[in-house]
Structure to design on (1166 residues):
C-alpha cells in the first residue's frame, strides 16, 4: 500500500469543521463561538462554522455547499453523540456527491456540555474537535461492504406479535419461518377471554390470525422447537434448531431475525398477599379462567362451588415495586415498572362480575388506576356505576390478608384507605384476586447467543425508544411485542407491524450495505505469522490462506469483511503492522493523541 | 377554477408530524412513492415544538430534525407544506386509472384508488427563488404574536416559522401586512410576490394514511381556569416553549412580569376525564409530560417549589414508572386532589382551589405560575372532507383495535398516531411503522389479486 | 421569444406592477390601515423602552413603571427585542433579570426559533 508511505498523499488540509449550538444544549455551557475561533486557526482546517442545529436543513446545506464549492474535502461535525446523527451527516455528504466516509464526529454534548461547565467545557470541546480534525485529515474515501442477503426472516415466538410479524413480512414476498417453543401458537392470548376494553373474544382474534397463517404459502411454522445456536451476520444468519419431541436437529438460513418471545405472568412468592397459604387467594389469570368457564347463572358468583359474597381485587402485584419496600424475588430483582395492562383487565373482570352477579360485592384496592387507552376510562366509569368500591393504598402500607374473625368469611383484608382520611379498615372476603404483572419470558440464552442487550427491567432493550424502537444494535435483529415491555394485544400488533416494515425494508433489495470499518491486510507486508488470527474475536472473520506469489507459496491473512467487528485486536498484535482498520487506522490514533496532548488549542 | 394539475403517488400521508414522517419514511424505504401533505408551513408537528421528551430526556429537536431532514431528502417522498386538504375519497370517476396499478388495467378492473383535492396556500414568497436568508423578516416593521412561542413573544408579519423549520421558507401574514414594500426591497433574489394566489391540485394515490395528530383543549373556553385571562396560568404546550432552550425568554419566567417563579403548580386532568368538557377519556401523556417538565424545572430552578395536583399518575410505558419515582425522589410534590377553580391572586399569583382526594375537604394555594395539562382533542375533523368514520371520542375509528389498530373503515385508508386517540411519541412511532406496513401490504395484495 | 429587455420593456413592466400594487392596496385598504396603526404604536412603544434603557439596565417592572405600560406587554416586547438582538439579558436583581441595550445591535444570524 503505497499510500500509507507518504504523509503528503494521505493527509488533507481542507477539513471543514461545523460546531452545533444544539439550541442551547451545547451553547449554554460551551462558548461555541470561542471554540470556532480557536478551531479556525488549527492546521488543516479550511473552514469552521457554527449553527443553531447542525442536523437541521440549513446546517446540512452549509456542509453541502462547502463540499460542492471545493473549499473542503473532509468534514468534522461537533455536536451530540454519533449514535444520533452520524448517518444524518453521512447522507448529507453523499448528497453533495462526496464519499460519505470522509466524515468524523466530535461529541461535545454528552461528553462535554452535559457534564462540564464554563471554561472546562469550552476547552474540552476544543480538544475533542482538534483530535477529530487530526483524525479526519487521514480519512480515506471508502466503499460500503455489500453482502448478499437471504430474502428470508425468522420469527422467534408464536404469540400474537410473532404471528402478526410473520404475516406482514410474508405479504411483501419474503419467506418466513416461525419458531415456537411450545406446542401451540397464540401465546398469552390462549389464557385470555374477553379483552378490555371492548370485549372482543381472545379466541376469535386468535382464530382470525390462525386461519391466515396456517396455510400461508410463504410461512413455515415449527412448534415444539428450541434454538440451540445462532451464527452468521445480517443477511446470512444460521439458526441451529432442535425439536423437543424427537431431538431432531435442523438448520435455518435466514436474512433477518425478529424476537417476539413474549412474556409470562408474575408468580407471587409464597405468602405474598396470602398467596399459596390460603386457597381463596388467586391471581387474575385464574379469575379470567373461572369467568370463561363459568356457566352458572344466579345473582352470586360461585368459585369452586362456594358463593362469593365479597371479593377484593388487589392491583400492582409484582409491578411498580419499590426498593426497600417490596421484597425482591430469589434473583434479587424487583419489577419496578408498571405492567400497563392489569388495570383495564381488572376493571373489565369486575364489570363482568357486577353485571352478571350483582350479589357479589367487589372492592378494588389500587395505587393509581391507569386506564390510559382508548375506551379504557369508560371501563373505570362503568365500574363506579356498577358500584365497585374503590380503595386506595400507598406503596408503604400494603394491604394485609389474614383469616377473618367473622364466621361467614374465610379471610379479611386490612387496608389504610387514602380515599377516606387514611382510615384503617378490615374488609371481610370470600376471594382475593391479585393483579399479577407481566414479566418477560426468560430468553437470556438466546440473548447471550446473539449479544442482545437486556434492560435493568429484564426486558429486551431496543436501540432507542424513539429513533429505533424495534431494532437491536445487532444489525438484522428486531424485536416486537411483550419481550420489549408490557403491552396489550393491539399494542403488540402495532409493534409487530413496525418490526415487519423494518425487516422488509432491510431485505427488499436482496443485498445489504455495511459500514466499511473493517480490517484490511497489506498483502506485501504480511508475513503470515497468524498472530492476528489468534487475536481475532469473531470466529471466521480472519484466517490464514495459502497464496502463490511468483511461484512460491506464502501464507497470508485474509479478512471476511462482513464478519469483521472492526475491533482492532488484530492490528494491535501484528508485528509487521500489516493489518489495520479502515477508518480507524493506527496512524489516525497517533495523530488524535498528538492533538490532545499538544495542548496548544485549549488555552 | 378547475384544477388540472394531477400528481400520482402510491401513498398520501395526511399530516407531517412525527407520525406522518415515520409513516412516510417506512413506506419510502420500501420503495413506495409518498406524498406528505401538511397544513402548517413546516413539517415536524407538535414534537418539533417540544423541549425535551420523556423518559429519556432527549431534546425533541435532536430526535425530530433528523427525521424531518430524512423525509425532505428522501428520493421517494415529496412534501406539500402549507396546504389544505379539501377532500379525500375513493376515486369513482371511472377515469383511466393511469399508472396506479401498473399492468392491471384490464377491461372490467375497476380503479379503486384514492383522490384528494388540495389547495396550496400562498406564502407570498416564490419557493424557487427564496434562499431562506430572513432579510425580509429583519426589515419588516410590524410585530405580531408568535404562536410558535405560545404567543409569549412576537415575530414579524413575514417570517420563517422557526429556526429548524423545513422547508426554510418565510410566509406572509397578509391580515397584518401594511404592504410597505420593505421586504420586497430587502430580498436579494426578488422572491417576494404580493400577488400569489392559492393553487389547487389533485393527488391520486392507492392508499392514504391519516396522521393528523391532536390539539389541546383551548383554555379560553374554560371558565373554571380563568378563560386564559390570568397571565400566569398557561397551558402545557406554552410551558414546553418556556423550557425549550430557544424559547421566548430563553429561561423560565412568568409571563405577567418576567419574574423567575418560586412556586409552580401543575393541574392534571384539566379537561380530561371530565365529561363537562366533552373529553371523558384520559389524554394519556399529561402525567408523563408534567413530570418531565417538573424535572426540567427543578434542574433550572432548584429552589422552586413544584407541585403536581393529580388524581392518578399514569406512568404506564417502558421506563415511565421509574421516571415517576425519580421525580418523587427529586422532591417534586404530588398532591392527590382535583382542582376546582383558579382565580387571579395577589402580586401576579394564581390562586388554586382544590379538593383533596382523602375527603378532608377544600384547600387553596397561591402559585407564581400554573400549568394546565389540558386534554387532547383531534386536530382534524374528517367531516365533509373524507367519509372515514370517527368514534364517540371524535378520533378516527379503528375497526380492529386488537389485530391492527391502524385499520379504518375506508378501504386503503389507515390511521396512525394521535389521530386515532391520544398517544405518546414512542407509541406513535411504533404505530406509524404498523400503518406503513398495512399500507404496503394493501398495495402488494392488490397487485397479486388483480 | 424576447431575448433582450429594452429600457422601454422594463418601464412598461414597472408601470404595470405599480398599477397592480395600487389596486391591491385598494382591495386591502382596511387591513393596511389597521396594520399601519399597529406598527406606529409598536414603534412608539419600542422607542420608549429603548430610550429608557439607554440610561441603565432595568427589570421589567422598572421599565413598565417608567413608561407606564402593563408588565406583561413590556415583557412581550423585551422577549422580541432580545430575539432580534437589540437587547441582552443583564444581571439578576432579586427574582427579576435586568435587560440592557445590545451595544452591537445587529440581527444575529443565530436568532432563536
Amino acid at each position: 500500500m503505497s499510500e500509507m508511505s507518504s504523509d503528503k498523499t494521505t493527509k488533507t488540509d481542507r477539513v471543514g469543521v461545523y460546531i452545533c449550538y444544539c439550541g442551547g444544549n451545547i451553547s449554554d455551557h460551551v462558548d461555541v463561538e470561542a471554540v470556532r475561533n480557536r478551531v479556525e486557526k488549527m492546521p488543516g482546517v479550511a473552514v469552521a462554522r457554527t449553527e443553531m442545529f447542525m442536523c437541521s436543513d440549513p446546517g446540512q446545506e452549509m456542509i453541502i455547499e462547502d463540499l460542492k464549492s471545493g473549499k473542503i474535502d473532509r468534514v468534522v461535525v461537533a455536536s451530540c453523540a454519533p449514535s444520533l446523527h452520524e448517518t444524518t451527516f453521512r447522507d448529507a455528504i453523499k448528497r453533495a456527491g462526496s464519499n460519505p466516509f470522509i466524515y468524523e464526529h466530535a461529541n461535545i454534548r454528552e461528553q462535554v456540555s452535559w457534564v462540564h461547565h464554563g471554561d472546562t467545557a469550552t476547552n474540552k470541546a476544543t480538544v475533542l474537535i482538534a483530535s477529530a480534525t487530526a483524525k479526519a485529515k487521514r480519512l480515506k474515501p471508502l466503499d460500503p461492504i455489500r453482502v448478499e442477503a437471504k430474502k428470508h426472516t425468522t420469527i422467534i415466538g408464536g404469540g400474537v406479535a410473532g404471528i402478526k410479524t410473520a404475516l406482514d413480512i410474508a405479504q411483501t414476498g419474503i419467506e418466513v419461518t416461525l419458531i415456537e417453543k411450545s406446542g401451540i401458537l397464540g401465546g398469552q392470548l390462549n389464557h385470555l377471554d374477553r379483552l378490555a376494553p371492548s370485549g372482543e373474544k381472545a379466541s376469535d382474534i386468535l382464530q382470525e390470525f390462525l386461519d391466515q397463517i396456517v396455510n400461508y404459502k410463504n410461512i413455515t411454522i415449527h412448534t415444539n422447537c428450541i434454538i440451540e445456536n445462532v451464527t452468521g451476520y445480517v443477511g446470512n444468519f444460521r439458526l441451529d434448531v432442535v425439536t423437543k419431541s424427537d431431538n431432531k436437529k435442523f438448520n435455518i438460513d435466514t436474512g433477518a431475525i425478529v424476537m417476539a418471545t413474549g412474556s409470562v405472568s408474575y408468580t407471587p412468592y409464597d405468602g405474598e398477599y396470602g398467596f399459596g397459604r390460603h386457597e381463596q387467594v388467586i391471581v387474575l389469570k385464574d379469575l379470567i379462567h373461572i369467568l370463561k368457564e363459568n356457566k352458572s347463572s344466579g345473582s352470586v358468583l360461585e368459585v369452586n362451588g362456594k358463593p362469593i359474597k365479597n371479593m377484593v381485587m388487589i392491583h400492582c402485584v409484582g409491578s411498580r415495586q419499590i426498593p426497600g419496600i417490596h421484597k425482591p424475588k430469589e434473583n434479587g430483582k424487583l419489577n419496578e415498572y408498571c405492567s400497563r395492562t392489569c388495570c383495564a383487565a381488572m376493571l373489565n373482570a369486575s364489570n363482568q362480575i357486577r353485571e352478571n352477579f350483582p350479589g357479589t360485592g367487589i372492592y378494588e384496592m389500587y395505587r393509581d388506576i391507569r386506564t390510559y387507552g382508548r375506551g379504557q376510562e369508560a371501563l373505570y366509569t362503568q365500574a363506579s356505576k356498577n358500584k365497585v368500591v374503590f380503595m386506595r393504598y400507598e406503596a408503604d402500607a400494603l394491604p394485609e390478608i389474614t383469616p377473618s374473625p367473622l364466621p361467614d368469611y374465610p379471610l379479611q383484608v386490612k387496608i389504610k384507605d387514602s380515599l377516606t382520611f387514611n382510615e384503617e379498615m378490615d374488609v371481610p372476603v370470600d376471594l382475593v384476586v391479585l393483579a399479577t404483572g407481566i414479566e418477560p419470558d426468560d430468553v437470556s440464552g438466546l440473548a447471550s447467543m446473539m449479544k442482545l442487550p437486556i434492560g435493568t427491567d429484564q426486558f429486551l432493550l431496543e436501540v432507542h425508544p424513539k429513533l429505533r424502537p424495534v431494532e437491536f444494535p445487532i444489525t438484522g435483529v428486531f424485536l416486537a411485542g411483550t419481550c420489549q415491555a408490557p403491552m396489550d394485544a393491539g399494542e403488540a400488533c402495532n409493534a409487530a407491524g413496525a418490526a415487519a416494515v423494518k425487516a422488509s425494508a432491510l431485505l427488499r433489495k436482496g443485498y445489504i450495505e455495511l459500514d466499511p470499518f473493517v480490517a484490511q491486510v497489506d498483502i506485501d507486508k504480511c508475513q503470515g505469522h497468524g498472530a492476528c488470527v489468534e487475536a481475532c474475536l469473531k470466529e471466521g472473520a480472519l484466517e490464514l490462506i495459502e497464496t502463490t506469489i511468483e511461484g512460491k507459496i506464502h501464507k497470508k491473512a485474509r479478512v471476511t469483511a462482513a464478519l469483521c467487528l472492526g475491533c482492532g485486536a488484530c492490528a494491535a498484535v501484528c508485528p509487521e503492522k500489516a493489518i489495520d482498520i479502515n477508518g480507524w487506522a493506527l496512524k489516525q490514533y497517533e495523530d488524535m493523541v498528538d492533538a490532545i496532548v499538544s495542548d496548544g488549542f485549549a488555552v | 377554477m378547475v384544477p388540472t394539475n394531477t400528481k400520482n403517488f402510491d401513498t398520501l400521508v395526511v399530516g407531517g408530524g412525527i407520525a406522518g414522517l415515520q409513516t412516510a419514511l417506512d413506506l419510502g424505504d420500501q420503495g413506495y412513492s409518498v406524498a406528505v401533505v401538511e397544513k402548517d408551513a413546516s413539517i415536524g408537528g407538535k414534537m418539533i415544538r417540544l423541549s425535551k421528551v420523556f423518559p429519556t430526556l432527549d431534546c425533541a429537536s435532536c430526535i425530530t430534525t433528523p427525521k424531518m431532514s430524512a423525509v425532505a431528502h428522501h428520493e421517494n417522498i415529496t412534501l406539500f407544506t402549507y396546504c389544505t386538504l379539501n377532500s379525500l375519497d375513493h376515486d369513482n370517476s371511472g377515469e383511466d386509472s393511469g399508472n396506479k396499478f401498473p399492468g392491471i388495467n384490464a377491461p372490467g378492473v375497476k380503479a379503486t384508488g384514492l383522490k384528494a383535492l388540495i389547495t396550496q396556500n400562498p406564502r407570498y414568497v416564490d419557493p424557487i427563488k427564496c434562499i431562506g436568508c430572513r432579510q425580509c423578516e429583519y426589515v419588516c416593521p410590524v410585530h405580531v404574536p408568535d404562536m410558535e412561542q405560545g404567543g409569549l413573544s412576537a415575530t414579524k408579519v413575514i417570517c420563517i416559522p422557526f429556526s429548524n423549520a423545513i422547508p426554510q421558507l418565510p410566509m406572509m401574514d397578509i391580515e397584518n401586512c401594511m404592504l410597505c414594500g420593505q421586504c420586497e426591497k430587502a430580498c436579494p433574489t426578488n422572491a417576494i410576490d404580493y400577488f400569489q394566489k392559492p393553487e389547487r391540485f389533485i393527488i391520486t394515490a392507492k392508499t392514504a394514511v391519516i396522521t393528523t395528530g391532536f390539539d389541546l383543549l383551548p383554555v379560553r373556553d374554560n371558565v373554571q381556569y380563568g378563560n386564559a385571562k390570568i397571565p400566569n396560568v398557561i397551558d402545557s404546550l406554552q410551558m414546553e416553549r418556556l423550557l425549550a432552550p430557544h424559547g421566548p425568554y430563553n429561561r423560565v419566567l412568568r409571563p405577567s412580569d418576567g419574574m423567575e417563579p418560586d412556586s409552580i403548580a401543575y393541574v392534571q386532568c384539566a379537561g380530561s376525564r371530565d365529561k363537562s368538557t366533552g373529553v371523558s377519556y384520559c389524554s394519556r401523556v399529561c402525567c408523563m409530560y408534567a413530570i418531565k417538565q417538573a424535572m426540567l424545572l427543578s434542574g433550572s430552578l432548584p429552589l422552586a417549589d413544584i407541585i403536581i395536583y393529580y388524581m392518578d399518575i399514569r406512568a404506564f410505558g417502558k421506563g415511565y414508572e421509574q421516571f415517576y419515582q425519580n421525580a418523587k425522589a427529586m422532591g417534586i410534590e404530588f398532591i392527590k386532589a382535583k382542582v376546582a377553580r383558579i382565580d387571579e391572586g395577589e402580586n401576579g399569583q394564581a390562586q388554586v382551589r382544590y379538593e383533596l382526594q382523602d375527603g378532608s375537604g377544600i384547600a387553596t394555594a397561591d402559585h407564581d405560575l400554573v400549568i394546565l395539562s389540558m386534554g387532547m382533542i383531534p386536530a382534524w375533523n374528517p367531516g365533509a372532507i373524507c367519509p372515514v368514520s370517527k368514534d364517540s371520542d371524535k378520533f378516527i375509528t379503528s375497526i380492529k383495535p386488537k389485530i391492527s389498530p391502524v385499520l379504518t373503515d375506508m378501504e386503503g385508508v389507515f390511521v396512525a398516531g394521535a389521530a386515532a386517540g391520544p398517544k405518546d411519541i414512542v407509541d406513535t412511532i411504533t404505530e406509524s411503522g404498523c400503518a406503513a406496513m398495512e399500507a404496503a401490504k394493501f398495495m402488494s395484495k392488490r397487485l397479486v389479486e388483480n | 421569444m424576447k431575448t433582450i429587455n429594452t429600457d422601454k420593456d422594463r418601464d412598461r413592466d414597472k408601470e404595470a406592477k405599480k398599477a397592480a400594487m395600487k389596486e391591491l392596496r385598494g382591495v386591502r385598504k382596511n387591513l393596511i390601515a389597521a396594520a399601519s396603526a399597529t406598527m406606529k404604536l409598536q414603534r412608539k412603544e419600542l422607542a420608549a423602552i429603548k430610550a429608557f434603557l439607554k440610561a441603565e439596565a432595568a427589570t421589567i417592572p422598572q421599565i413598565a413603571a417608567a413608561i407606564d405600560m402593563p408588565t406583561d406587554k413590556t415583557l412581550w416586547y423585551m422577549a422580541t427585542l432580545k430575539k432580534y438582538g437589540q437587547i441582552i439579558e443583564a444581571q439578576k436583581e432579586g427574582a427579576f433579570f435586568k435587560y440592557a441595550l445590545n451595544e452591537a445591535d445587529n440581527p444575529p444570524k443565530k436568532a432563536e426559533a
Q: What stands out?
A: Confidence is low (pLDDT under 50) at residues 107-113 of chain C. The interface with chain B takes residues 20-21, 24-25, 28, 31-32, 34-36, 38-39, 42-43, 59-61, 64, 71-72, 74-80, 82-84, 89, 92, 95-97, 107, 111-113 of chain C (CB under 8 Å). The longest strand of chain C covers residues 87-93. Residues 7-101 of chain C form a domain with the Arc Repressor Mutant, subunit A fold (CATH 1.10.10.10).
